[in-house]
Amino acid sequence: MNIFTDLEQWVYPLFIFLFFLLLFGSFHWLFLYIVRLTIRKLPINTDNDIAKAFDHPARLSIGILGLYIMLKVSPLYFITENILVIKGVHTCIIFSMFWIAYNLATSTNGLFVHLLNYLGFKVNYSISNILSAFFRTVLLVLGTAMIISEWGYDINGFIAGLSLGGLAISLAAKDTMSNIFAGMIILADKPFNVGDWVICNNIEGSIEQISFRSTSVRTIEQALVYIPNSLLTTTPIINYTKRNKRRIDITVGVVYNTTRKQLQEIVEKVKASLIKNDDICNEDILVVFNQMNSSSLDIRIICYSHLTDFNAYTYAKEKVNFDIMGILEEVGTSAAYPSTSVYIEKMVSELP
């Protein structure tokens, strides 16, 4: 009997083929619908990211399994008993599983970012990118090892090869490996985040990106400076963004003909003005007649603004300066400027 002429034996396999073909074509929107029904607490667009991560790997598995099952129940069942076919199917399934995990571990995937937030990591693009690259590398190694093991090869030799290769790479690229580990330390310790304003090794600017090898800083002049991560772990870093207030330190010199009463009035009114100022922290205000300078009577004003943003802080400081100028005008005195008084004991005409 010719197996290709016996159509009845191909009816059931044909239905299986059509079922898997339908599943193959409608998988994305069907799986997306199931995800949206079962997972409601995840952020917006995360369900779509999960569906995209599963889409191509799952289609591959559906296609391979559909073909395998169809052949299994068909007159060509003996093909599925071939050891190479069985190992090939297993390899495709393993490959698809790790492909899904690889897609979920990408830094642009909403589920990956949500999990990082859940684990307590303050997520930004650079940090999630570092973690993503690390996890994807681990997945590639594990997936390759499992596929090699599936085909009967000794996985110990593969691991030993990785060890020797890793040793050779680490010796040849010692500085690079140092920067990578330093990047991990920065990630764990979190001395700064993207957007923070820092000073490190006489470089001042905003953190723009944290990568495996280096951290980029955008300076005031808008130049982009790349600092090796190993340097950041051994150099003191001043992070201005993490402070909760900024200091205002002003010295006002008034003219020497200012009376004691006027000085006391200036000190009292400046202090009262700072207390009323909503931008100033009331608990750390110091206004004192500090010293008698060579050409002025100096009043020292120290206070703190709770505005840490540079522009907002600058405007707050400007307001304090204007208030001080208004108080000087109100009291009836003025700010001093560097000057020298010359006293002549006798005129030239009066000399003998």
From TrEMBL:
Cellular component terms (Gene Ontology): plasma membrane
Gene3D superfamilies noted in UniProt: 1.10.287.1260, 2.30.30.60, 3.30.70.100
Domain Mechanosensitive ion channel MscS C-terminal stretches: 248-332
Matching Pfam families: MS_channel_1st, MS_channel_2nd, MS_channel_3rd
Residue ranges of the TM segments: 12-39, 60-79, 85-105, 126-149, 155-173
InterPro entries named in the record: LSM_dom_sf, MS_channel_1st, MS_channel_C, MscS_beta-dom_sf, MscS_channel_2nd, MscS_channel_C_sf, MscS_channel_TM-2, YnaI-like
Location of the Mechanosensitive ion channel MscS domain: 175-242
Entry protein name: Low conductance mechanosensitive channel YnaI
Gene Ontology biological-process entries: transmembrane transport
Record domain Mechanosensitive ion channel transmembrane helices 2/3: where: 137-174
Record family assignment: Belongs to the MscS (TC 1.A.23) family.
Subcellular location: Cell membrane
Major location category of this protein: membrane
